[in-house]
Fold:
Amino acid sequence: MNRQDCRDTGVVTTWNLEEGWGTIALNHADLTAWVHYSAIVAGPTEYRSLTPGQQVRCQYETPGQDGYPARAVEVTKLS
Structure:
């Protein structure tokens, strides 16, 4: 993995609640990032989940995972 300080905002496009993963369409990088629930920044009692259409800020690395060009490694919910 090429972990760089790549940060962007984006929109959650898919979220599989049962498996705890989904995708984020990054706004400026023109990439789709794969995201796992463990990458979501949350408080100790907060449930780590995303919703399609939700806006997020994230740090990501390339190449991605499972055929996606990027992987989100730190995701903060904006809405």
